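subagent[fold] <- orchestrator: predict structure for attached chain, return tokens only, no commentary.
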Amino acid sequence: MEPGTLACTTAGGLIIHIEAERYRIAPEDVRSLIFAGRPAPVTCERVRRTGGIVAGSVTIEGHAAVNPAGRAVVVHTRTGSFIIPLVSLQRVARGEAASAPLFPLVPEVGI
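subagent[fold] -> orchestrator:
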């Protein structure tokens, strides 16, 4: 089982499933990430029920950015950092692929 999965929404945004968390990237942010290389906020929606009242909040939990080589997208969240090839993200965003796996990004350790 992969550590995370990237899928497309009907509106053109992206859903990122990492363990038990579900994050989103808005459609306009996906376009600016792919076409202009601008970092995109990664948000999470939480719903709370207090008594009989349902309250929700949307918070920015991280960001996604194209790596310096321009061949992959790095997703940083509170649960960790993950990488996906840019071409895989583009295929999911265009609807050509239903989903794509995210790979854990291990930080470099100096020798």
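orchestrator: received. Logging for downstream: The mean pLDDT is 91. The chain has one domain: 4-101.
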